[in-house]
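TICKET #2291
ISSUE: user wants both folds in one file
ATTACHMENT 1:
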Amino acid sequence: MSRIALVSYRLGGTDGVSIEAEKWCVALRGLGHQVETIAGGGSPDVLIPGMGMYDEPIDLEATLATALEGFDIVIIENVISLPLNEHLRETLYRILENRVAVFHHHDFSLDRPSLKHLEPPRKHPLWTHVVINEHSQKLLNGVGVGSLLMRNLFEIHPPAGNREAARRALGIKDESLFLFPSRIIERKNPSRALRFSNQLDATLWILGEVEDFYDEEFRQVAAHQARPFLQQRSPGSIHDAYAASDVVVVSSNWEGFGNPVIESVTHRRPLAVHKYPVLQEILQFGFAFFDIHDPDTMRRFLANPNPAIFDANLAIAAEHFNIESLPKQLEALVAYALAQ
């Protein structure tokens, strides 16, 4: 079995990259590999200052090189594709020269107007690039970098969650509760989610905190809401949050994947979604979701729910997005990377 280091800006949190990295860690350890996590924030096995997204450049090469000694494979989560710490990116490129590495890409600077000037990922004979959607694969092909496609995978039958306890803890009684299971940042467009909830006389519950310097803009958005909304972490687990909700809302302009889309399916909740570009790939599998710009259709469904939609969506997820297939996929990836 191999010694594998998994490296990112932050690990162990509730953001999508941390969640997907944890899934890989669990599966790789289940295969018998020794896995160690290294990051600049969160709760990794090894915490190294200077590795965070917006950290000031410091000389961390010696420290990071020492931390990565002896590993057979180094997996880099999103640092190269979304280089919000260019000093860290350059340091990793130097350390990983002539070493086996897997770059697991979740988001690309090439997809963001303000970051398009940043350099795309580089290629090397010993490096393997992994993407989570076809759009990203085409993007890399366009700059001469080949990649493997491994979509995010999910537990098909997650714990049911305690609806009554969660709603009671939130002070919610009979009113409709819509769940926004994300951080508050510009590209997730919380104003669109709030508007949709208002149109349906529902309370929007925002699970995440404000990030990426969006504080002042969100204060202005919040100040103009006709209805109150909730902004707090789940009083229990994420499963309790889904159980407590009546509708899941994904209002993003852009997502590298959009985990709440499939999580709404596995928790058997109707999803109101804005059709961000990568969603088109997910919809090709045959899922039935609701358009966030069409509140009337959602209103009719809530008045007369059709459970057959949930059954059909879950069957699709079980066939194409089942986390039970992850160990086999990672076993093949490790063998491929080591063979380069």
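ATTACHMENT 2:
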Amino acid sequence: MKDVKIQLSEKDMPRQWYNILADLPKPPPPYRHPVTLELMKPSDLQAVFPDELIAQEASTERWIDIPEEVADVLKIWRPAPLYRARRWEKALDTPAKIYYKWEGVSPAGSHKLNTAIAQAYYNKKAGQTRLATETGAGQWGCALSYACQVFDMECKVYMVRVSYNQKPYRRILMETWGATVVPSPSPETNVGRQLLAQDPNHSGSLGIAISEALEDTVTHPGTKYSLGSVVNHVLLHQTVIGLETKQQMEIAGEYPDILIGCVGGGSNFGGLVLPFVKDKIDKSHPNLRVIAVESMAAPSMTKGVYAYDWGDTAKMGPVAKMHTLGHGYVPAPVHAGGLRYHGVSPILSTLLEEKLIESRACHQLGVFEAAISFARAEGFVMAPETAHAIRATMDEALACKESGESKVIVFGASGHGHFDLAAYDAYLGGKLQDYEYPAEKVQEALKDLPKVK
């Protein structure tokens, strides 16, 4: 029999996170203060993050130990399996070898739990009793809700309104784990009240939800803010994905020609690819292609500008240099809610600028076409976010069919789509529509970029 999945044992689980800041030829520019635009000091972040996460954010140590208390929880689902998509290869009639790293095995159903557990642990250790956060599609909100339950903390989630309405079962899952969930913009913050006064039916955005969570954090004692993507320490915690994948590919006797992942803020993509990008930097595998796939509704890497911008709509959070569509940009309400952020990780932005990775954007009709092709062959129904990686994988596999090349393609399967069946129903019923890239809307949003010297 031909192997379909490659499993690692618990003793093979990574004991350290990999920090690419130790190896980048050019580090990301430093954060700026949201008000003064001066360089931020670590103390400027203490209102929102505990000291150990602040230290990880700036660390240039190549390896950072995973605390035993965190590893003990990660063992519930880690190491995650690596699958060979043999049935899909046959369906596509491609000579390509397709592998996917399956993160849907976590209790929360996605990769997000890898950092949620770590962040809840460090906050609990620092004496916090409550965490506030935002969520787009709901994957991050679910992960943090469970992590807070593990470490006996309260959790408040501001969920982007369009996703709150589209995905009620994610809200129910968060509440099952004890979280309080409200649609954003909400009447519970000044930011939310102002936006609802302008438009009572506002669909929301991740930038707005971040602003609400930050306002909640600084107005509630014992509370810190927790972020599911974009920042350095989140990508650090996610590198368990790529470190495991490297071990599994060694067992398979293969090394990827192409690595593919979907990108909203960059956490699952960064977690998969950063341990491999190190091999491009040190020239051990200089020809590796690394492809970031985003939604055409929020194509920050492919059509945004590389500039300093606020991470949230109300300009409360740090100013980072990244590929951005403007902090005031509100994307179309596509079903891939986790890919609707206006910016992207400063680390990934730097890699794109240095041409160590490439990017492309996809429309949602083509994305669901690929996801259904995959589901009918492999069985797994993937989240709309993951479906973007599947679309790019399908395109590369079909290119191999044309060229006759047997390339090794690995993509990140960041989460299951069990709570996203309304999107599949809309596609199958012919009711799903594409959204064109709104160039004028982006240009308007970009007029309000900070004036950084």
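RESOLUTION: both attachments delivered.
EXTRA DETAIL ON ATTACHMENT 2: The first helix runs from residue 51 to 58.
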